[in-house]
Predict the structure.
Amino acid sequence: MSRGLNKVMIIGHLGRDPEMRYTPSGRPVTTFSVATTRNWNTADGERRQQTEWFNIVAWGSLAEICKEFLVKGQQVYIEGRLQTRRWKAEDGSERHTTEIVAKEMVMLGNRKKRANGEEDPEEEDAFSLDEDNDTDDDFPF
């Protein structure tokens, strides 16, 4: 039997505050974007920089944690899998998006203030998705 692997690990900064919604069945889902920046030197010695944006989706308890603790600008480590969703737009055109479905999130870097004004603790916090609840049965968007 052949096996496949779909695993993504990124470290970057949140581009916007997380947005949490609930599926019709009541399951929480949180979305946010993360930017990663890559630096290199050209053959001519010129310094170059490229930023790549990733859409992140977190489900269940990880969704609730991301909504509570993450803010725009926060540095995070995200581990998960790539997923491409397809749908028909209102105008009938085929649309698709590729996103990272988060399985684990670790807050890194300088802490930002929470929505209630309190500072986050200084130690790193790691959160993982409970594998038993990792079903993508319905999407609220």
Q: What stands out?
A: The first strand starts at residue 8 and ends at 14. Residues 131-137 have pLDDT under 50 and may be disordered.
